[in-house]
């Protein structure tokens, strides 16, 4: 998924408290939409017990990723299996040392050093 999309309004519209006039361009970040605190609370925290929430990670409607169901199934099977196999799994470095890839289509860790 692209980290941002540039869209042009075809008619006047109000989005939240902002008025967008026809012809104006708006930059939309689907990645930021996935971090809406009204849906997920603290989006910077990994919470494997968080209730499922709607997201744009795999697209939507006719643009929905065909691999979405497979990815979800892999996570539901692989993550519990990994934690059962390595119950002492933990970061090998302080959390503040983790570095993220920010100049690409997907916001992600550059590496995830772990130990058990």
Structure described in brief:
This protein is of the alpha+beta class and 116 residues long. The chain is built from three helices and eight strands; from the N terminus they run ββββαααββββ.
Mind explaining what this structure looks like?
The chain is α+β, with helices and mostly antiparallel strands and 116 residues long. Helices cover 22% and strands 19% of the residues. It is built from 3 helices and 8 strands; from the N terminus they run E-E-E-E-H-H-H-E-E-E-E. The strands form 4 sheets. A two-stranded antiparallel ribbon has the order 1-4. Strands 2-3 form a two-stranded antiparallel ribbon. It has a two-stranded antiparallel sheet with strand order 5-8. Strand 6 (100-101) and strand 7 (108-109) form a beta hairpin. It is elongated and about 55 Å long. 0% of the residues are buried. The mean pLDDT is 85.
Blueprint of the fold:
Layout: E1 5-8, E2 13-15, E3 18-20, E4 25-28, H1 30-33, H2 37-40, H3 68-85, E5 90-91, E6 100-101, E7 108-109, E8 114-115
Antiparallel strand pairs: 1-4, 2-3, 5-8, 6-7
In the sheet with the most strands, the strands line up as 1-4
**What is the share of helical residues?**
10-25%
**Gap between N and C termini:** 33 Å
Largest sheet data = 2 strands, antiparallel
The rounded Rg comes to 18 Å
Q: Whole-number average pLDDT?
A: 85
The proportion of strand residues reads 15-25%
| pLDDT < 50 runs, ≥5 residues | none
Element order: H for helix, E for strand:
EEEEHHHEEEE
Shape: elongated
Instruction: Output the number of helix runs.
Output: 3
- The total beta strand count reads 8
Structure classification: alpha+beta
């Amino acid at each position: 998924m692209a980290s941002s999309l540039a869209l042009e309004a075809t008619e006047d519209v109000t989005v939240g408290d902002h008025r967008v006039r026809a012809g104006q361009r708006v930059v939309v970040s689907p990645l930021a939409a996935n971090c809406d605190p009204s849906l997920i609370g603290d989006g910077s925290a990994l919470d494997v017990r968080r209730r499922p929430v709607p997201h744009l990670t795999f697209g939507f409607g006719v643009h929905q990723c065909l691999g979405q169901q497979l990815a979800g199934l892999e996570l539901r099977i692989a993550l519990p299996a990994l934690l059962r196999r390595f119950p002492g799994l933990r970061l090998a470095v302080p959390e503040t040392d983790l570095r993220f890839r920010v100049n690409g289509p997907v916001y992600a860790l550059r590496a995830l050093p772990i130990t058990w």
